[in-house]
Specification:
The complex is a heterodimer of chains A (299) and B (335). Chain A has 299 residues and is mainly alpha-helical. Chain A contains 15 helices and no strands. Chain B is built from eleven helices and twelve strands. Chain B has an eight-stranded mixed β-sheet, with helices on both faces. A four-stranded antiparallel β-sheet of chain B has the order 2-1-4-5, with helices on one face. The two termini of chain B are 30 Å apart. Classes of the chains: A mainly alpha (299), B alpha/beta (335). Chain A binds chain B through residues 5, 9, 12-14, 16-21, 189-191, 193-201, 204, 208-209, 212-213, 215, and chain B through 60, 62, 87-88, 90-96, 99-100, 102, 104, 107-114, 116, 121-122, 125-126, 135, 139, 149-155, 158, 168, 171.
């Protein structure tokens, strides 16, 4: 450690040196095998979804129907078999990952921005502002989130964007609560008072002193919430409120295959597995991040 | 007489601050007057809870509100009426005209920002320069307090306590303030580091020409850095004078008690003479002299009314009604 510090200083000479906490956290995360496995799966999934078009042509393979090969089991030509319209399941899973991942990420971003801002304002200002915002959040929280998502999607009509919005809005309360709780613990720290003493205004204090100190629980929550957003997407698609056919989506595939559960279980088995693996990977990563970000576990 | 000093950087008149809580009103500051000239150092000595920090925070108007309420008085900082300034102007003053050094450098630095960023932040807030220039200047400030520029990008946890406090000093001096408030800046440090930090502060303060208010329990620090001393007890200045006035011709029984509780290096066997009793409950201060219950010179008169300032020389006053009696002297003077 000491030697590394000296080396770092020597290598970079007079230049401004920056060896961040990020490096420290990465080092601790690397020790956690399960989290790294989760991260590996996730990276693979992201790569697959980025290069989906290279792997399988959308028009020719993913949505083109061919009833002559319908409901075939896994084989050399179709690794995971074909569905009720003779479409390759692997190809549909690969393209479906795009929808699942993007909905997951964007929905979480929406709830993070809205919930985080509300929570930070409530926690920082306290008093009436806090009461007003948190009671509103309580109202949102009183409605089951799936029900809320269903209501929003059915009111606005099913589309990818509305799906993201619905899932995002329904998890605003949990972000607001988490951010508020961490802001409350941070805002009375002496460095916040010190920031005031150097003449920083409230906005600068929230953005540059309080939020960076609340990142740990937020990062963990994000990794776990992406998983639940993917699950919600699948759930809504399963109910027919999500992505419209023939666009491949894991939940919709699951839903479409349930009529053939007895004769062709692979129709539901593989999309189900895809969902499970993705969520497992995200949860493992989330747990690992929580441990890596917890300064009490520093060795 | 002494009230008519010219060129004051800080002029506090009859400041009264209460903390109004559900459990009662805490009378933290009860009529404090402070006049401080440019470039001078004033020491505020007193026990924990005597209102020293509250006074310092009020100069920045950062007394936590609620529950803190500034009941009366005026604070003029370099001619500006702090108590009636809009918030935006206050923010322009804080860190620029006046800045503060906190007691514990472990908690007053933000753990997730590099020390350089934190210094650059002050500069960027108050000076109209680019981010790059602010960073360069922050690096300069690090060197000024004796930390190599290469450590700009390190985080507070990579620094020792003394170095952290020097970073805090660099932050406080970055915008060349006219007044520096040092709230027990060395209490959290061990003695050898204390000396280094004090030396740094003293040198830089002279170099930058800032006035300073040094809040401390430690009379040794006072002797080392201060020009004038105010002894604070239960939110009032009970004795004020130049360093010589306080150390050589002590007047107030409480000040005597403070000196009595210092170990004597020459006579190792001498027992410490602690002041008996405790500070009065600030929610329920006695009607008369607040020190009367603990004072060995106390008479019946003392409990009747709060003593007024009694000027004994141009620079020295004391609040003790016993001095109304001709020939009264405390024991320390007699020695």
């Amino acid at each position: 450690m000491e030697a590394a510090k000296i080396n770092g200083a020597v290598q970079e000479g007079g230049a401004v040196k920056r060896r961040g906490q990020a490096g420290e956290i990465w080092r601790r995360l690397k020790k956690n095998k399960m989290a790294m496995a989760g991260l590996a799966v996730l990276v693979l999934l992201i790569l697959v979804s980025i290069f989906a078009d290279v792997l399988f042509d959308y028009n020719e393979i993913v949505i083109k129907q061919d009833t002559s090969i319908r409901l075939q089991g896994p084989s050399g030509a179709h690794w995971l078999g074909t569905d009720e319209f003779g479409r390759d399941i692997l190809a549909r899973l690969v393209h479906g990952s795009r929808v699942s991942l993007s909905v997951g990420v964007i929905a979480v971003s929406i709830s993070l921005v809205i919930g985080g801002a509300l929570g930070a304002i409530a926690g920082f200002y306290g008093g009436k502002t806090d009461n007003l915002i948190m009671r509103f959040i309580d109202i949102l929280l009183a409605v089951p989130s799936l029900l809320l998502s269903i209501t929003i999607v059915s009111a606005l009509g099913p589309s990818i964007f509305n799906l993201m919005l619905a899932i995002g809005v329904s998890s605003v309360p949990s972000y607001a609560r988490i951010v508020r709780a961490s802001v409350l613990t941070v805002k009375d720290q002496e460095y916040v008072e010190a920031a005031r003493c150097i003449g920083a205004n409230n906005f600068e204090i929230i953005v540059s002193h309080i939020i960076p100190n609340c990142m740990a629980p937020i990062i963990v929550q994000v990794s776990l919430k992406v998983a639940s957003a993917i699950l919600s997407t699948s759930g809504l698609s399963f109910l027919g409120l999500g992505i419209k056919a023939p666009t491949p989506e894991w939940g919709a595939m699951l839903s479409g295959g349930r009529a053939y559960l007895r004769n062709a279980p692979h129709l539901t088995l593989f999309p189900g597995l895809a969902i499970i693996i993705t969520i497992l990977a995200l949860n493992l990563l989330g747990d690992g991040l929580r441990d890596a970000l917890d300064p009490k576990l520093k060795k | 007489m002494a009230e008519q000093k010219k060129d004051l950087v800080l002029d506090i008149k009859d400041l009264v601050i209460h903390y109004e809580t559900d459990d009662g009103v805490v009378e933290a500051v009860n009529g404090i007057d402070i006049q401080l000239e440019h470039g001078k150092t004033l020491g505020l000595v007193g026990e924990t809870g005597s209102g020293k920090t509250t006074t310092a925070l009020s100069i920045l108007r950062l007394v936590p509100d609620p529950p803190g309420v500034i009941k009366s008085g005026s604070i003029k900082l370099d001619g500006k009426d702090v108590l009636n300034l809009p918030v935006a102007e206050l923010e322009a003053i804080r860190g620029n005209l006046v800045s503060m050094i906190f007691q514990d450098p472990m908690t007053s630095l933000n753990p997730v920002l590099t020390v350089g960023e934190q210094i650059a932040e002050v500069i960027a807030l108050h000076e109209n320069i680019s981010e790059k220039e602010a960073q360069t200047k922050a690096g300069d400030m690090l060197e000024v307090v004796g930390i190599p520029r290469e450590r700009y990008g390190e985080y507070p946890h990579q620094f020792s306590g003394g170095m952290k406090q020097r970073v805090v000093i660099a932050m406080a001096l970055a915008c060349n303030p006219k007044l520096l408030l040092a709230d027990e800046p060395t209490t959290a440090l061990d003695v050898t580091i204390q000396a280094q930090v004090l030396e740094t502060m003293k040198k830089l303060r002279e170099q930058y020409g800032s006035a300073m208010i040094m809040i401390t329990h430690d009379l040794g620090i006072i002797a080392e850095v201060c020009d004038e001393v105010s002894v604070v007890y239960a939110g009032q200045i009970v004795e004020h004078g130049t360093l010589e006035d306080i150390f050589e011709s002590t007047m107030h029984p409480y000040t005597e008690g403070l000196f009595g509780s210092l170990p004597n290096i020459e006579e190792r066997k001498a027992r410490l003479q602690p002041i008996t009793g405790l500070m009065p409950d600030p929610t329920n201060l006695p009607k008369g002299c607040c020190f009367a219950p603990r004072c060995k010179y106390c008479t019946e008169n003392c409990a009747k009314s709060r003593p007024d300032k009694k000027w004994v020389s141009d620079t020295h006053y004391v609040r003790c009604s016993r001095y109304e009696e001709p020939g009264f002297q405390i024991e320390r003077r007699g020695q």
